[in-house]
Amino acid sequence: HLPVTAMGPGVRDWGRLLLTVTAVLTLPMRPPGSWGAQIIGGHEVTPHSRPYMASVKFQGQHNCGGFLLRARWVVSAAHCFSGRDPGTGLVVLGAHALHTVEATQQVFSISAVITHPDYQPTTHTSDICLLQLNSSATLGPAVGLLGLPRRGARPPRAGTRCKVAGWGSVSDFEELPPGLMEAEVRVLELDACNSSWKGQLSPAMLCTHSGDRRRRGFCSADSGGPLVCRNRAYGLVSFSGLWCGDPKTPDVYTQVSAFVTWIWDVIWRGQHGPQPRTTGGRQALSEPQQHRVHH
Ligand SMILES: *[C@@H]1O[C@H](CO)[C@@H](O)[C@H](O)[C@H]1NC(C)=O
Ligand SMILES: *[C@@H]1O[C@H](CO)[C@@H](O)[C@H](O)[C@H]1NC(C)=O
């Protein structure tokens, strides 16, 4: 079982593409649908009914999701930014059909990416980052905030119904969905999920499955998007198996409740602490690990 991050097209996707091609050549044909690379088994949401949803774009292309936590802060997955220059990234808020011109859209550049200091690309541990936008979003009907779990909150119990949304592409060839898609999934017990993943999971993760025989979950380019349970972000899309929605490799999220203190600390420091030095070029500072954008 090979973990595949749910990131959009990019350098790291060549591995996935290669695996897909290899799999096509070596595996028996799968029923249509198991190929789909959008939110799997979901539906298009009412436009702007999830006003906290953010799209992270690189080179004009949707790459990852995220959610708006404060007017100037978006939460996303750390792997979305590994090996990328955040200076080339944009955050789009207030979108429904990303590829069309929408008056509700607000576009921001990214002033800072604060990656969790314990993030490990190989194991996907602590796959979370905070994006500081270049200015504050204007909140309104199409752009709004999503709350975190309370400090010290436990992750939702197994069986809890939650929703995952994203603009993940609708095919392995980077087609976009008609609008924001969403699927209802159920929290899966971490032990069971860990067994499916051959013991590769760490404690600050959260898994979901469809809870029935249908395939439902996330796929390419949904990374960083929130898993919403009881109107709060309890998960961030992190990785899944080669086949999206495959019950053998349940969807894995970053367990947001384990990072609440870190998130508020970063935001507090961003607002009240000394401004990080702006030096030429990007730098990986420690504690917190930061990639500053060269202005
Ligand atoms: C923020 O970035 C966006 C996108 O690059 C740009 O259009 C906007 O003017 C910037 N806002 C400020 C206040 O610099
Ligand atoms: C997953 O299983 C492995 C191997 O048994 C174990 O080392 C690891 O701690 C487990 N992870 C979780 C989150 O329980």
TrEMBL record:
Give the matching InterPro entries: Peptidase_S1_PA (IPR009003), Peptidase_S1_PA_chymotrypsin (IPR043504), Peptidase_S1A (IPR001314), Trypsin_dom (IPR001254), TRYPSIN_HIS (IPR018114)
Which residues belong to the signal peptide in this entry?
A: 1-36
A single GO BP term for this record reads:
proteolysis
**Peptidase S1 domain span:** 39-268
Q: Which CDD domains match?
A: Tryp_SPc (cd00190)
In this chain, the stretch annotated as Disordered covers 274-295
GO MF terms here are:
serine-type endopeptidase activity
Q: What highest taxon heads this organism's lineage?
A: Eukaryota
Q: What are the UniProt keywords, alphabetically?
A: Disulfide bond, Hydrolase, Protease, Serine protease, Signal
| PANTHER family noted in UniProt | KALLIKREIN-RELATED, SERINE PROTEASE 57
Record-given protein name: Serine protease 57
Q: Which organism is it from?
A: Capra hircus (Goat)
- Tell me the lineage of the source organism: Eukaryota, Metazoa, Chordata, Craniata, Vertebrata
